[in-house]
Design a protein that fits this description.
This protein is α/β, with parallel strands linked by helices. It contains 15 helices and eleven strands. It has a seven-stranded mixed beta sheet with strand order 5-4-6-7-3-8-10, sandwiched between helices. A two-stranded antiparallel sheet has the order 1-2. It has a two-stranded antiparallel ribbon with strand order 9-11. A hairpin with a 4-residue loop joins strand 1 and strand 2.
């Protein structure tokens, strides 16, 4: 999976080349090739690039004659063309009667039924069936995390028995901390972590977004930790870092300072592993994230105080840590 792939950034009305992720793509290719006994649920920092990665995988697999791939953007509300990518036109035909809005959520809930309907049109015998569902748990509701994931696990066996498929691979993504915690309680799901871009990939993305080459790449790296969406947010604010950090404070940090407390935030800013209870609370608020180093897709960042990365916990963006320390010091 190494062909050229572009990503449209709607916020900037700009098309960029897909960057980095060589190791991640290799691992996902191995997962897809051998099939999954359990659904693979990938979590990671908000904006780390899970959507772009899944779309890349979907479009690469669509070229394989022995593979039926279905990608669903579970958060897409209105447009079928955005909510669904597939290798077979028959998939589009069986969803024409899906009129529910938001449509992505409806497709996520109906994914098992869609493949069953597809089997009535084309033979699945000897085929590899790959189902990629992006941001599914936020779309279907946290109360449905366990039941939905277990249903997909049971469905894998059903596809083998009923339709004699060769392999089944189900890959789900989530940015939501509570769903990750629920999934970690169960044995019928393979929980993996995806991190931000590497330094090299990040710099390549900066170059594509800033044609004038007049930004401070080092500052951007220290504040974003390689997070693509954070970089895009800064770019759409005219590369005004101060304005972006004010947005972060008003959007998330101010609330955390009231609900979690300044001293606990200070402690976690100095050492992300210092308070697991408070870190879990901040994970629910989208500020921190638990690091699962042994089950990562791709690389995991080394502990680094400046980037807010510990051994077990990390700030989702180094900028969150920076804003916390600056506001507490005022």
């Amino acid at each position: 999976m190494n062909e050229s792939f572009t990503v449209y950034i709607e916020e900037l009305d700009k098309v960029v080349k897909f960057v980095d992720r060589v190791r991640e793509l290799h691992q996902l290719d191995e997962i897809v090739s051998r099939g999954t006994a359990f659904p693979v649920a990938i979590y990671g920092p908000e904006g780390c690039g899970k959507t772009a990665l899944l779309k890349y995988v979907a479009r690469s697999l669509a070229k394989r004659s022995d593979t039926i791939v279905i990608y669903i953007d579970a958060l897409e509300q209105f447009e079928l063309e955005k909510a669904l990518l597939s290798s077979h036109r028959e998939v589009l035909e069986v969803v024409r009667d899906v009129s529910s809005v938001p449509i992505g959520s409806a497709l996520a809930r109906l994914c098992m039924s869609l493949v069953t309907r597809l089997a009535s049109r084309i033979s699945l015998k000897g085929k590899n069936v790959v189902l990629l569902i992006d941001d599914v748990y936020r779309a279907i509701g946290l109360e449905n995390v366990d039941r939905y994931t277990k249903s997909l696990y049971e469905w894998i066996g059903y596809l083998h028995e009923k339709f004699e498929v060769s392999n089944v691979a189900i890959i789900l993504t989530t940015s939501e901390g509570v769903s990750k915690r629920e999934l970690s309680k169960h044995t019928y799901v393979d929980l993996r972590m995806l991190w931000n871009l590497s330094r090299e990939g990040f710099e390549e993305l900066v170059q594509q977004l800033d044609q004038l080459r007049n930004v401070d790449v080092e500052e951007l790296w220290i504040l974003t930790g390689g997070n693509p969406r954070a970089l895009i947010d800064i770019a759409r604010r005219g590369w005004n870092v101060e304005r972006w950090m004010e947005y972060l404070y008003e959007g998330k940090i101010r609330r955390a300072m009231h609900l979690v407390g300044r001293e606990k935030l200070r402690s976690l800013a100095e050492d992300p592993d210092s308070d697991w209870v408070a870190a879990e609370r901040l994970e629910e608020m989208g500020l921190m994230i638990e690091l699962r180093r042994a089950s990562a897709v791709g690389t995991v960042p080394d502990p680094c105080t400046e980037l807010g990365v510990g051994r077990d916990w990390a700030w989702q963006l180094p900028a969150y840590r920076y804003v916390v320390l600056r506001r507490i010091g005022e």
